[in-house]
Amino acid sequence: MKIVIVGAGEVGFYLAKRLSQEKHDLVIIDVDPEKCASAQEALDVSVVEGNASSQSVLREAGLESADMLIAASAIDEINILACMVASKMGVKRKIARVRNPDYYTESSLLRPEDVGVDLFIHPEEEVIEEITRLLLRASASEVIEFENGKILVVGLKLDAECPNLNKPLKELGNEEQRKNFRVVAMLKGEKTIIPTGDDYFSKNDQVFVVTTRESLSQVISLTGKADQKLDKIMILGGGKIGRGLAEKLEEKIDVTLIESNKGKSVRLASQLRRTAVFQADGTEIDTLAKEGLLHMDAFVAVTSDDETNIISCLLAKHLKIQKTIALVNKPTYLPLMPVIGIDSTVNARISTANAILRFIRRGSILSVATFHGIEAEVIEFEMQKTNKIIGVPLKKLGLPEGALIAAIVRGEEVFVPYGNSSIEYGDKVIVFALPKAISAVEKRFS
Q: How far apart are CA 309 and CA 300, in angstroms?
């Protein structure tokens, strides 16, 4: 598929990296010569330097012959205009990343179809949804839902309290429990592996487990953690994410919001109905303690500064706060977060890319999700009658290296399959895959 990507910033670069691994024909457009040079050097893509609001630049990128446009620059209007031009050129699928709610809320006078857009992606909303899922599952470092929450992919950090350290995975729990979960990936240091039954848990491993909602508590207990409810939360940062998160949570739990800017904190106090708003510096531990941090169940840092978010979360962890979540946008920081003790990390580029990848992989592919800190995807397929793998035992499928079938949904039933299991027409199949296996997996299951 030929895909034109507008913007070589964090989101555009990340998407290009993921999609180039799947051998798509990619062209990136950016007005910044340094970003163009970086993309040209690091990625197997074509690069056009110029403003994507220009029709001549879009033609130079070959947009007229493209199958898809992903407009992911930092400027909403450029993204929308590029999609409008793409629509006139006959491009089948157009995605625009927008941050101004005027373009995508229900009250907007312009609908996506009015401006030639098939899908609006708003990064802040994606991050807010991800943080909400993490707060609902306090022990998890990452939570991704499939089938309206019937199936969960849960990331868990192992510490010295894990009762199953150095035990083979095939011996975790009892036989009945093992039918309800599967460890699909383990991050050991900087290496991601797809484990077998003979692999084992080690201290500081980051593990990813597929399970059902009903079995989640059992899975969490196997790692030595408790799935505790959060009643009091402190949010640092009153930007779009902080305010949106407070609005989403304040009717359900007690929310305190800390904002360093005086004018903004006054506006937030008048706009939020039940959230307590204070003006304070997020890196001053005494001030945070004074505003109630010691009594909080969770601390969420979502300022525009990565370092402030990281430092404040470490301070909160030092004060024994149960759950810490940091917004971290610099990709070089992400692998360090579990090591230094922050419970969960959210990243706007990954959240945005997840939403875009879900749209790209339509057809027999129902959903796609990626993870923080590991290069991997979980893909949900719906099995068609014509697929040759229907009725074949899984042990005879010959899946590519770096892929495994994590779960199957059959009607209302959800189960973890084993070697003698087979796939039936109409099943929904959850497959975990490393980048090198994604293309082969899509061919096999689509």
A: 8
Q: Which CATH number fits domain 139-222: 3.40.190.10, 3.30.200.20, 3.30.70.1450, 3.40.50.2300?
A: 3.30.70.1450
Q: For 235-269, what is each residue's pLDDT tens digit?
A: 999 999 999 999 999 988 999 999 999 999 999 99
Distance CA 57, CA 50 (A): 6
Mean pLDDT confidence for 210-215: 86
Report d(CA 231, CA 297) in Å as an integer: 7
State the CATH class of domain 232-350.
Answer: alpha beta
Of residues 57 and 443, more confidence is placed in 57
Q: 308: phi > 0 → left, psi -120 to 50 → alpha, else beta; which?
A: alpha
pLDDT at 315 over 80: yes
Domain 376-445 sits in which CATH superfamily? Regulator of K+ conductance, C-terminal domain (3.30.70.1450)
Spell out the long-range contacts of 52-59 with Cβ–Cβ below 8 A and sequence spacing 24 or more.
Answer: 52/6, 52/7, 52/78, 52/79, 52/81, 52/82, 53/77, 53/78, 53/81, 53/82, 55/85, 57/29, 58/4, 58/29, 58/82, 58/85, 58/86, 58/89
Tokens standing for residue 286: 């005494």
Please tell me the distance from the alpha carbon of residue 204 to that of residue 188, in angstroms, as a whole number: 8
| CA–CA separation, 23 and 331 (whole Å) | 23
Is 242 in contact with 272 (CB distance < 8 Å)? no
Amino acid identity of residue 360, one-letter, is I
DSSP string, 152-177: EEEEEE--TT-TTBT-BGGGSS-HHH
Q: Give mean pLDDT, residues 186-210.
A: 84
Prediction pTM value: 0.71
| pLDDT value, residue 352 | 82
Q: Is 178 left (phi over 0), alpha (psi -120 to 50) or beta?
A: alpha
Query: What is the number of residues in the chain?
Result: 446
Task: Report yes or no: 257 and 321 within 8 Å, Cβ to Cβ.
Answer: no
Predicted local distance difference test score (pLDDT) of residue 170: 87
